Amino acid sequence: MEAVEEGGGRVRMLSGFVLAPVAFAALWLAPLDVPVPAHRLAAVLGAVIVLWISEAIPMAMTAFLGVAVTVPLGIVTSAEAFAPFADPLIFLFIGTFLLAQAIFFHDLDRRFAFAVLALPGVGARPSRVLIAYAGIACAISMWISNTATVAMMLPIGLSLLAVLDTHGQGSHRFGAALLLSASFGASIGGIATPVGTPPNLIGIGFLRRETGVDVPFFSWMAIGVPIRLVLIASAVAGLVRDVRRDVASDDLARAIALERRGLGAWTAGQRNTIIAFGLTVACWVIPGVLALAWGADDPTYRWLQSTLPEPVVALLGAGLLFVLPTDARRLEFTLPWREAVKIDWWIVFLYGGGIALGTLAFKTGLAEALGRGLTTLLGVRTSFGLIATSTLLATVLSETTSNTASANMVVPVVIAFARSAGIDPTLPVVAATMGASLGFLLPVSTPCNAMVYGTGRVPLAIMMRHGILLDVVGVVTIVAVVAGFGPLVVGR
Questions:
Q1: For a Cys staple, 390 with which of 65, 346, 352, 432, CB 3.0–4.6 Å?
Q2: What's the pTM value of the predicted model, to 2 decimals?
């Protein structure tokens, strides 16, 4: 199986090196009825999309190259091309990643995980462990990247399975279900908050830049949390139903308790991280609560929105990690710089390149032309129709390429489509962004799926069977919640 996967990956990469120049040449020579800069940008985007899907070269580098090549091709100046890399949401990414790195560095995620697994009655039955395990992954991934969440949860799950196997209480079905619950739970949890996964910030960023609509942190959660609850309940219900062996296991409960005791007492770094993280989340959520209670015209709410926007709060919260000491005498602080530089810089670069190319699509008129063409082709004329179409398109695309790349490709198209059809793009963009976080079907759909599949305990048939059902539930839920509840929260 590994040989087949490796061979398939090689073919995919080689096809990218061949098809990217072909796509560029075909679009460059095609008789497109658009301005010259838009025509040239179409050729660049065609090659970039092929490289993103094939992953022939690292996606972040593809984004860099796509932006850089627009300058020698005469599409824009270098200042215009690279300006989006200084977008405020770039710094929201960086601040959030620093906070997540501190949580990971100080083992706060493991402490939280074992605290939940050690709750009375949870460790007594494997099915309860599965439910708690999925819930933990879902909760953590609201604030930490999906991939990092699974990277943390996977060793815990494998350890628990080893305990069951040692005492003859394990089963292949339970092992597959447990590990899948971490992958699915992490992907689902990221939908709930703006910082839970990069596609969310991509959608929010495009809305703010191209339409002037800001989606506050609390407003996003008001839509994302109900969707998260429905999806995690559906995922867990399906996985638990698939587990036939459900026997009491005192050994499993003892193993969980032993692991928890092994974490030791709370450290200064853990306490400091909790302080920094708690203050940051409070500053993100409180303005939305005030708006809900007193209205969006309340002066306190307006002052908080203008004085403490989310990117500033993220950087201030992350800054506390370098101020709060763990050992004042030795001048040691909560997050050492050697750990800080380990954040996911590639996602920051991919995000910057994606928004730069999307911004250029609007600036050159390419997005407007594409919107007119899609309006004529698809005939979608209502907000609900566009919400459903956008969600489905983003979900299907996310099965074959990264969620971040999917959002970068779909969101600008949805905005252009909405403008051409005379539809407010806010809700369709929110739906498309959340749809980009689905993609549960294949190992290549998300790094989360790839990691659990790589353990050898998750058969492809089981992943696909549960994944397709969860995709369908996800699309239906997102469309229903965004269309039904969204106008009360973020609609204009």
A1: 432
A2: 0.78
Residue 325 gets which letter from DSSP? E
Contact 201, 208 (CB under 8 A): no
Number of Cβ within 10 Å of residue 234's Cβ equals 19
C-alpha dihedral, 307 to 347 to 156 to 446, nearest 10°? 120
Give the Cα separation of 92 and 355 in Å (integer).
14
- Please name which of 346, 321, 347 lies closest in space to residue 98, comparing C-alpha atoms: 321
One digit per residue, the tens of pLDDT, for the chain of length 492 reads 344 344 456 787 888 999 999 999 999 999 988 899 999 999 999 999 889 888 888 888 998 999 999 999 999 999 989 988 888 878 888 888 898 889 889 988 788 877 887 888 777 677 888 898 899 999 988 888 787 788 778 878 887 787 776 655 556 788 889 899 999 999 999 999 988 888 898 899 889 888 888 888 888 999 999 999 999 999 999 998 877 555 556 666 777 777 777 778 889 999 999 999 889 988 888 887 787 677 667 788 788 878 888 889 989 999 999 999 999 889 899 999 999 998 878 878 887 888 888 888 888 888 888 777 777 777 778 899 999 999 998 898 888 777 887 888 889 889 988 888 889 999 999 999 999 988 888 787 777 888 888 788 888 888 889 999 999 999 999 999 999 998 888 755
Cα 371–Cα 374–Cα 379 angle in degrees, nearest 5:
120
Paired tokens of 208: 């703010």
244 secondary structure, DSSP code: -
Of 79, 69, 98, 70, residue with least CA distance to 348: 98
| 180 closest CA partner among 476, 470, 433, 478 | 470
- By the 10 Å C-beta count (0-12 exposed, 13-18 middle, 19+ buried), 343 is classed as buried
Q: Which of 441, 415, 377, 455 is nearest to 211 (CA)?
A: 415
DSSP string for residues in 394-452: HHHHHTTS-HHHHHHHHHHHHHHHHHHHT--SHHHHHHHHHHTT---SSTTT-HHHHHH
Query: Would you say 417 and 371 are in contact if contact means Cβ atoms under 8 Å apart?
Result: yes
